[in-house]
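Incident log, entry 3
Record: S8 family serine peptidase (540 residues)
Problem: checksum mismatch between cached and fresh output.
Input:
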Amino acid sequence: MVVVFAAGNEGPGADTHNPYAIAPWTISVGAGDRNGLLADFSSRGVRGEQGTFSVDGETWTFKNEPVIVAPGVDVVSTRAVAPVSSLGAQMDAELLTPAEVPFYTHMSGTSMATPHLAGVVALLLEAKPSLNPAQVKELLVKTATNMPGHESWEVGAGYVNAYAAVDYAFRSSNFGSTVNSTRRFNSSVNSQSATTPFTINFNPATTATNQMTFPVSAGTNSLEVKISSPGVLGETGNLTNLVLIDPAGVRYTSGTPVTFTLSTDRSVAVASPVAGTWTVAVEGVRGVAAPETVTGNITLLTPSGTTNLADIVGHPAEAAIKMAVTNRLVDGLATGFQPNANLTRIQLADYLMMGQGIRQFLPVNGARTFTDVSSVSDILLTESVAARGAAQRDGFHVNNGVMLPTAIGTFSPGATVSRAALAYSLVQSLGFQEQALSRNGKSVTVSVNGQTVALDDADKIPAGLEGYVSVALELNLINAYYTISQGPYDLQPTIRATFKPSQAVTRADFAVIVTRTFQQYNAQTQPVAQAARTTQPRPC
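Fresh output:
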């Protein structure tokens, strides 16, 4: 029997993982949304917490982390009780027709993600009935899609890829070499942890004493705050909620668990927090929460040296390279990072799989798309980035691949990557094909201090990529180049802009550009300015 277990809805802090889901013979499932992002509420494990034990002479290895992530946000299903239900009422009104509302509703939670995963397991067993539970788990891990900016203690192997998993079960295809959780990286940014205890005298009748501030330095890798709210005499629990507020006013909340009498811890974790003064606050349900002394800890993970990155010291892109390596958006080479070397196409394919949510894929009929790649790992890379529906953001698997061939049947793995080609790849990875194609054939412009400036070299952008360059510029993924001239009698200077579409991208260039893309990946679903992110109420 394959046992599938919900990871829990107590995120986003560490050490919130359902303790019963840690057993190594179970498959613990976290929750993600339809854009491939991890749900804030999805429970996390603990970095590096693992061990072994023996049962009946067999040795088992456990890790305190989810195994896989599956869709668990705004999932539509039939109502158990019609027509009265408050579950997902707002989403119901927005996305369901009045005729559907009495019979269907929305709901979020790892309990929604778990049946998705159970369905995938059923498909695997149909494809290969002889699979045992350990083999099913291994197939799911090896075929997962990496989730940018998250480590295995948060997401396990990544987002489930049902197509690749069934393909692997049916054909024993060569998947797995691109999964970050099992990959050995050439370079890394090391870190050290510093923990500061604090106390808040919580009083639901006032807000003055219910919060405190603390500083976060630039370059901090992650921030986690955890409190204990055991209630009266440490026995009753308390209807409290932990809130972090960043310098811009964006709120990150823990939510209040339904089992508050038993689940007395609250925690919130933030990756790559902005520098400045943060606020930690304890909020309670008005008229119900009780006064108490709340104790907690603030843990900051900061850089502490690097491995195999000595050649970036003093480079203008040093900070961006460190950020990109930290978030596994790029990796060094065996001989260092080589920031001034040109980025090759096979390296770009590798980094797209690593940090842009690109699904693993191999042609079912075995017919290879490219004849100029031969190694097993390169075949997986090139087929995956060229496949229709490659990007996790493409929920319907209808968009083109995230990299284009250099010629029919040719990938040219050692060729350099141009700025125009990189714009295409990153915009496709974000799922903006429709928006980009709608702008093809139109003028490509940039906005400078409220002034719209047309690119002087727009005619040099390869046909079919104008829209991609336009979207990349609008999202600030990649920069234009500017010159300013002013005649002796001109009242205002003239600004001119170029893109240099055929210019080769260096490895340092890519690190800078991909960190900007990373921010868009985690913050946007459309190529327009977004409102400040706020977390939603705790789901079931």
